[in-house]
Amino acid sequence: MLTVAWRPEYVQPLPVGHRFPMLKYELIPEQLLREGIISESQIFSPEPASDEDILAVHQSDYVRRLEELKLTRSEERRIGFPHNERLVFREKCISQGSIENALNALKYGCSLNVAGGTHHAYADRGEGFCLLNDIAIAASYLLRHQLAKRILVVDLDVHQGNGTAAIFRNVPEVYTFSMHGANNYPLHKELSDCDIALPDGITDEPYLKLLDHHLNEISDKFQPDFIFYQSGVDVLATDKLGRLALTEQGCAWRDRLVFEFCKRHNLPVAVSMGGGYSPKLAHIVNAHVTTYREAACVFD
């Protein structure tokens, strides 16, 4: 049974200028219910993550200033959002959603967070619309509670998971794998355990061959027992920020490849949605919903 993390705060606190792409957080669960991919009983509404779980990843001074709304203007510009308490509350809920996502993945095989994938957040700062790193917080939770021993982060957003890579740089229990646009944000890339820098305009077939090869190679070498999957749809040719050229079908094949890999190796997988910035909102929503369709085909 798929389980899905969502609550209204995923979309409501966002500033007016950011609401168009962020409306996906409202439309995705509506479409999932409309198509019968999930029922209301499969949706869970996470509360904010605890200070203990957040501080296991993020530095206390940063978290304090985040909560007291004392970030500098420079820090706000780096994040891209005006700093306010509702956005902090939202990020805490997203982080708890990813913790519960991971717990449900252990129980059911796969669970998905309608938001999440805030992979640009570092231990001591936020960047790129990310305040807290939900995947890092959830991975840390599993390790601290001895629910996983070897975690693989598969980050297929078009942007490198720089914050995640930095947080886990010296953590051998977590292997960070990022396939991203070589010429895309962030300008300064961190060193993941495996980085695949993709050329502009890469299409379905070479992309999928690279993914299949490296996923199997990493699995043989690292032998994970849990996977976090960052399933950004900004890899689409229609994406105005992405620079890659995957079709919607290619993006679906990507998701199916990851899910079938997890199923074949009996690996629980917790999915975060990541980015998507196509000019037509329907392209963004359909691509994200397709991730759920593919998960349902493999795990239900």
Automatic annotation (TrEMBL):
UniProt GO BP: epigenetic regulation of gene expression
Keyword Coiled coil found: no
Domain of life: Bacteria
SUPFAM superfamilies hit by this protein: Arginase/deacetylase (SSF52768)
Keyword Isomerase in record: no
UniProt domain Histone deacetylase: residue ranges: 20-290
Keywords attached to this entry: Hydrolase
Entry's Gene Ontology molecular function annotations: histone deacetylase activity; hydrolase activity
Protein name, UniProt field: Histone deacetylase
Species of provenance: Thermaurantimonas aggregans
